[in-house]
Design a protein that fits this description.
CATH superfamily of the largest domain: ANL, N-terminal domain
Strand content: 15-25%
CATH architecture of the largest domain: 3-Layer(aba) Sandwich
CATH class of the largest domain: Alpha Beta
Distance between the termini: 50 Å
Strand order of the largest sheet: 4-3-5-6-7
Structural class: alpha/beta
Shape: globular
Number of strands: 28
Low-confidence stretches: none
CATH topology of the largest domain: Rossmann fold
Radius of gyration: 25 Å
Length: 653
């Protein structure tokens, strides 16, 4: 067993790990939450008491071994504790996306046969009330925040505090029950059901055992040398496997502290206050932070801008090399040390990264320039590759050999192999048990000898590091015979701060064409600095100046693709800027913000046809969902732009 970690053959479930930490480090901080501007802290001993009270309260309400408990809300300590409470009774938590509309929740609640649901507030209660009649197994709804619920009299509604009150009374009568119940669990038991985001169809319930999650978390901890002294910020959806590993699994294995922000709107501010030592974020978070930095620098004084750009030049030359322990000249080392005092240190402090020791990013490819920017500041950011079916970790970039275009080496105890088709397969202790009530899907994904199909196409480079090209099923061919990898192209376009989303088409076509979404904040700031007036998103997206701005971005991508012998035929020949942001509420993105390319192609079929028919304009009317749930339509006449393409510098063969 790794130094400092509990014996995971003994403490093989999360309730057992909780009780272990309460015993050996009961006074150390385990959870924090910011409420009304003040950070509240619970130590491991207090968390064990909170979990026990809620678990015994669930028992009084009739919760039984094997029951499913839905969890719906923002990141809150009480919701994580509810997961532990269900597990201590032999139940199975089912975290759900808090921003899902009622209809999406209906499917998960019914499919998972959920009996109990713990929700955060009135908004989530209202969603469940809307669909409860269709969810035949749902019997109890427990809410954490009572605001606005005073006049809700439904008999199946109970407050979190009331359940804990019942539990404390039960504990007084049966003081040994909680520990005895927790001791019954085994590592091979079902720990959680996590529903996939449904990029290509209906969500699947991924069944993970305690051993799956615990051993995957252990692998990440050992690989990166994490300890009980870490502090992380839990702000990503609890239904996402990334949050489940980083904010729940690794914390309970290593015994470090997890903090929850006050709200989704205060995450960046709370991040700065907290200063975590370990941080996980998808690329869009790092991209957004960098965009904010560059916007602020544009508004800074001339002297500050000059100092920033000078020392960033130094960092670009030597920062990553210094971080990786590679030789750097004395002059650059001295300049970099000055830059740390005047630029890098203050900048990391503003971003909330002054204490950061390690950062991970995953979910999509991160732009090389963005990746190098953070590493040049001395921040040890790494790309990882994973999936829900792997309990996250498949590969992790190793210290000292970080490459921009790979996702690293196999994580501890993970095996990789490539199918003849180029698809990546893995086998690991984190490999999922099965899909819930979906034997056909399980057989199609997991072989009898434990190899799991990722659905991603890739290859191993000369150092054994994995490079992902695209989803295997999405890799197609142009009529020219050239390879078409849409996600690869989309990611290259999204590396520019002005482009928030991109959707590429080209399979069985003569050329590649794209839909683009502008980033309203970055483009809006750019427009304001140039005195360009606009009335809203649709107006700004259609401006000639914005089309020229995005044309420059597409041009740079095409020049880059011309140098790629595999993808030189995939240069973007035509594009348009969509009149609205792609939105999960409109079905265009998953809840983890992955593009649903086929759905978008069907919804905007007339735009796809216009791109390939030589039209210069196309009128569109599309339904949108507003923040309050109302439906509406947006009409626009979209311009279609031709892009310059370049002769390939080299071709395969």
């Amino acid at each position: 067993m790794a130094r400092g970690l509990p014996d995971l053959t003994v403490y093989d479930t999360f309730p057992k790990l909780l009780l272990h930490h309460a015993l050996v480090r009961g006074g150390q901080p385990a959870w924090r939450e910011k409420d009304f501007g003040i950070w509240q802290t619970w130590n491991w001993g207090e968390v064990a008491d909170e979990v026990r009270a809620f678990a015994l309260g669930l028992k009084v309400l009739g919760f039984q071994r094997g029951d499913r408990l839905a969890i719906v809300g923002d990141n809150r300590p009480h919701l994580y504790w509810a997961m532990l409470a269900a597990q201590s009774l032999g139940g199975v938590p089912v975290p759900m996306y808090q921003d899902a509309v009622a209809n999406e929740m209906r499917y998960v609640l019914s499919h998972a046969e959920v009996r109990f649901a713990v929700v955060e507030d009135q908004e989530q209660v209202d969603k469940l009330l809307e669909i409860k009649g269709d969810c035949l197994t749902l019997e109890h709804v427990i809410y954490s925040d009572p605001r606005g619920l005073r006049n809700y009299t439904q008999p199946f509604l109970t407050s979190y505090a009331k359940v804990q009150e019942l539990g404390r009374t039960e504990h007084a009568d049966k003081p040994a029950f909680f520990e005895e119940s927790a001791a019954l669990g085994k590592g091979s038991d079902l720990s959680v059901i996590l529903y996939t985001s449904g990029t290509t169809g209906q969500s699947k319930g991924v069944m993970l055992t305690y051993s799956n999650v615990i051993m995957s978390a252990r692998g990440g901890i050992v690989f990166e040398g994490l300890t009980e002294q870490e502090e992380v910020l839990a702000y990503l959806p609890m239904a996402w496997v990334g949050d489940h590993i980083y904010s729940f699994g690794e914390s309970l294995v290593a015994g470090f502290c997890v903090a929850c922000p006050e709200s989704s709107n205060t995450v960046m501010h709370d991040l700065c206050e907290l200063g975590p030592t370990f941080f996980f974020a998808p690329p869009r978070i790092f991209e957004n932070l960098l965009t904010q930095v560059m916007i602020r620098m544009e508004d800074a004084s001339r002297i500050k801008r000059a100092m920033f750009h000078y020392f960033m030049g130094v960092a670009k030359r030597s920062g990553a090399a210094i971080l990786d322990g590679k030789p750097v000249g004395l002059v650059d080392r001295l300049l970099y040390a000055l830059g740390r005092i005047f630029v890098y240190g203050p900048l990391l402090n503003v971003l909330g990264f002054s204490r950061i020791r390690l950062a991970h990013t995953a979910g999509e490819a991160i732009g090389p320039d963005i990746f190098r920017f953070y590493r040049s500041l001395g921040m040890n950011i790494k790309q990882i590759y994973g999936s829900t079916e792997a309990s996250v970790f498949i590969t992790i970039q190793p210290d000292g050999n970080i490459k921009d275009d790979t996702v690293g080496l196999p994580a501890p105890d993970v095996e990789l192999k490539m199918a003849e088709s180029g698809e990546v397969l893995f086998r690991s202790p984190g490999s999922f048990l099965a899909y819930f009530k979906n034997d056909e899907g399980t057989k199609a994904t997991k072989t009898e000898d434990g190899w799991v199909h990722t659905g991603d196409a890739g290859f191993l480079d000369e150092d054994g590091q994995l490079k992902i090209i695209d989803r295997a099923k999405d890799v197609g061919k142009l009529n020219t015979g050239g390879m078409f990898a849409p996600k690869y192209i989309e990611n290259k376009l999204k590396f520019f701060p002005f482009i928030k989303e991109a959707v590429a088409y080209g399979d069985k076509q003569d050329f590649v064409a794209c839909f683009l979404n502008i980033d309203i904040e970055a483009v809006g700031n750019w427009a304001e600095r140039r005195g360009l007036a606009y009335s809203g998103y649709t107006d700004l997206a259609g401006k000639d100046e914005v089309y020229q701005l995005l044309s420059d971005c597409v041009d740079k991508v095409n020049k880059d693709l011309a140098n790629d012998p595999h993808l030189s035929d995939s240069q973007v020949k035509r594009f348009l800027v969509l009149h609205k942001e792609l939105d999960a509420d409109d079905g265009e993105l998953t809840r983890t913000r992955k593009v649903r390319r086929a759905f978008i192609a069907e919804k905007y079929d007339q735009l796809v046809q216009a791109l390939y028919s030589g039209q210069q304009h196309c009128s569109i009317e599309a339904q949108v969902t507003f923040e309050d749930g109302r439906k509406g339509t947006i009409k626009a006449d979209l311009r279609i732009q031709d892009a310059e393409t370049y002769q390939p510098l080299k071709k395969v063969g």
